[in-house]
């Protein structure tokens, strides 16, 4: 009888512990969902206000869509350059590879990209803007001819469609599925939704909307980028001491 009572009491404690953990996990999941939605909708609303009331429009539709009507301030350009070069390809894929193989050489991928962005912003971008160009293929078309422009445009298009975009969509959908525990939802469904929403956002708002939202998301990325390692080190036995 004593053993049976002890076993029964242990079962009750185990069940209570599991229920407490499930309740805690459920609360954290709601916190994830709420913060994600609030931040996303807040960025969208702030971007709309800035683009609608503070950034002038250009009379040229192509110039307005691809170059932001030449109304973007330097901080929007800087934020857009940073976030354009950073996606789940790096946040999930690159970090995952570095963690798996234990080699930090992959960090140079982003460190070198920072140098390249500074050179681009300092030397290349002002020349592009002065010549009224929006793309690399457009520059090559002006420098050489339409054949070179068409070939380079085709290469870029194939690269983005076959190689880059699928990787970004896959890693992004994988991250969202694991964060929100959407294990019953196929990755192709999440990837399709991300692609549709991202395409609609870029097509409707153009470069201005992308640049402004990139800058806002960059601020959040920097804040949480500093917070995550600090929070991780606090979990060590000695903490930050």
Question: What does this protein structure show overall?
Answer:
With 241 residues, the chain is mainly α. Helix content is 82%, strand content 0%. It is built from 8 helices and no strands. The chain has helices at 2-53, 61-66, 74-84, 88-101, 107-131, 136-143, 146-179, 187-234.
Quick recap:
With 241 residues, this protein is mainly α. Helix content is 82%, strand content 0%.
Q: Kindly, what is the distance between the CA atoms of the first and last residues, rounded to a whole number of angstroms? A: 50 Å
Shape: globular
Q: What percent of the residues sit in helical stretches (DSSP H or I)?
A: over 70%
Structural class, judged by helices and strands? mainly alpha
Average predicted local confidence, pLDDT: 76
Describe the sheet with the most strands: none
Count of helical regions: 8
Number of strands: 0
Order of helices and strands: HHHHHHHH
What's the Cα radius of gyration?
A: 24 Å
Low-confidence stretches: none
Strand content: under 5%
Strand and helix layout:
Blueprint: H1 2-53, H2 61-66, H3 74-84, H4 88-101, H5 107-131, H6 136-143, H7 146-179, H8 187-234
Helix pairs in contact: 1-8, 3-8, 4-7, 6-7, 7-8
């Amino acid at each position: 009888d004593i053993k049976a009572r002890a076993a029964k009491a242990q079962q009750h404690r185990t069940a209570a512990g599991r229920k407490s953990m499930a309740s805690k996990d459920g609360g954290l999941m709601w916190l994830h969902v709420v913060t994600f939605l609030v931040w996303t909708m807040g960025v969208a609303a702030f971007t709309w206000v800035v683009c609608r009331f503070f950034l002038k429009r250009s009379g040229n539709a192509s110039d307005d869509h691809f170059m932001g009507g030449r109304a973007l301030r330097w901080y929007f350009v800087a934020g857009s350059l940073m976030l354009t070069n950073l996606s789940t390809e790096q946040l999930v894929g690159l970090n995952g590879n570095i963690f798996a193989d234990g080699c930090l050489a992959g960090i140079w991928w982003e460190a070198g990209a920072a140098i390249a962005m500074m050179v681009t912003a300092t030397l290349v971008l002002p020349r592009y803007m002065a010549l009224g160009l929006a793309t690399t293929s457009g520059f090559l078309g002006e420098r050489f001819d339409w054949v070179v422009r068409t070939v380079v445009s085709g290469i870029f298009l194939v690269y983005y469609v076959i190689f880059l975009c699928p990787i970004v969509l896959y890693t992004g959908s994988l991250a969202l599925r694991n964060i929100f525990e959407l294990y019953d939802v196929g990755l192709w469904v999440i990837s399709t939704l991300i692609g549709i929403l991202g395409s609609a956002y870029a097509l409707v708002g153009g470069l201005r909307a992308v640049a402004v939202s990139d800058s806002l998301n960059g601020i959040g990325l920097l804040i949480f980028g500093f917070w995550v390692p600090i929070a991780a080190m606090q979990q060590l036995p000695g903490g930050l001491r």
